[in-house]
Amino acid sequence: MPELPEVEALREFLDEHLVGKEIARALPVAISVLKTYDPPLSAVDGATVSEVARHGKFLDIATDGPTGRLHLLVHLARAGWLQWRDPLPSGPPRPGKGPLALRTALTGGDGFDLTEAGTTKRLAVHLVRDPQDVPGVARLGPDPLAEDFDLAAFSALLSGERRQIKGALRDQSLIAGIGNAYSDEILHAAKTSPFKPTQNLTEAETAVLYEALRTTLREAVERSHGLAAGRLKAEKKSGLRVHGRTGEACPVCGDTIREVSFHDSSLQYCPTCQTGGKPLADRRTSKFLK
After folding, report:
1. How far apart are CA 218 and CA 221, in angstroms?
2. Is the pTM of this model over 0.85?
3. Eight-state DSSP code of residue 180
4. CA distance 290 to 279
5. What is residue 240's three-state secondary structure?
6. Angstrom distance (rounded) from CA 253 to CA 271
7. Inter-axis angle of helices 203-224 and 180-189, nearest 10
8. Is the Cβ–Cβ distance between 145 and 105 less than 8 Å?
9. What is the CA radius of gyration of the chain?
10. Which of 46, 64, 60, 86 is closest to 8 using CA atoms?
11. Coil, strand, or helix at residue 101?
12. At a CB cut-off of 8 Å and minimum separation 6, what does 57 contact?
């Protein structure tokens, strides 16, 4: 799933390639992709892209046209992606079982496709007059890379929480933009168990976690800076230390990276770095850590 660093890199890419250009037409190909109907998607035809912003994991393409300013908000979900095409393929896209969900054509002949792999279709596009009209945006917590997101703000957010830190970091209403992959990376950098209750964090542990969060996300954004949209997935994977690397050696201590599996996801961690050498509870094994 694209998370804050990849979406921020896409925002930078689109800011360079899209702002100032006119949209010829936006064509929904998959029935499930468009989540709003008023204003209609055709309202952006002939509009000029004025800004590209980010809200957590949402891309916000702002346009100015005959009907005023509109915002095309995109959430790529787990398997969605944006592919820049110069030029776009000739002829209208064909609805079907392929990955193409929405095509946006510019008057210059270039544009971008929104695609989604797999059969579970969660990629979402909203066309609204105000980004806050999208429930997923309205409920977002603070951006962890914002200037005013300091240690005091982070500590205040965690002070009222009573749950495992992994779940807290992934909660978009608490902190915007962090998903499964980067929460694993942050916790590994902080040498913190993903199962540790937030209420058990000391002031010193909270400070270490805050520094790991900011550093991990900033470094990921810096690695992605200037890359073409098509190269961002590979950059994300190559930069991860523990997430998605079950069975490999931890780059810090050399221990074997382990996994805990859930019904629709999994987490990865290093026992030596994060849990005192003890394995975490995994329903697929007989080893448990309380």
Report:
1. 5
2. yes
3. H
4. 10
5. coil
6. 10
7. 120
8. no
9. 20
10. 60
11. strand
12. 1, 2, 3, 4, 7, 75, 76, 172, 176, 177, 179
Residues of the chain with pLDDT under 70: 227-230, 283-290
For 20, 55, 145, 282, the CA distances from 61, given in Å and listed in that order, are 11, 11, 20, 41
The strand pair at 100-106 and 111-116 is best described as antiparallel
90-115 residue pLDDT tens = 887 877 778 999 999 999 999 999 99
- What three-state secondary structure class fits 82? strand
> How many angstroms separate the CA atoms of 78 and 100, rounded?
15
CA distances from 65 to 107, 186, 202 (A): 14, 42, 52
**Angle, in degrees to the nearest 10, between helices 232-239 and 4-17:** 150
Please name the residue ranges forming H helices in 18-119.
Answer: none
Q: What is the pLDDT of residues 236-280, one digit of tens each?
A: 778 899 999 999 999 999 999 999 998 778 999 999 999 999 999
39, 129 Cβ separation under 8 angstroms: yes
Angle, nearest 10°, between helix axes 151-159 and 203-224?
120
Secondary structure class of 209 (helix, strand, coil): helix
For 25, 47, 70, 145, 168, the CA distances from 125, given in Å and listed in that order, are: 15, 17, 13, 24, 26
Q: Which residues, in sequence order, are bridge partners of residue 39? A: none
**What burial letters (b/e) apply to 203-216, b meaning 16+ CB within 10 Å?**
eeebebbbebbbeb
- For residue 128, what is the enclosing H or E element? strand 124-128
Instruction: Report the C-alpha gap between 272 and 263 in whole angstroms.
Output: 26
Place of tokens 């925002």: 11
Task: Round to the nearest angstrom and report the end-to-end CA distance of the chain.
Answer: 29
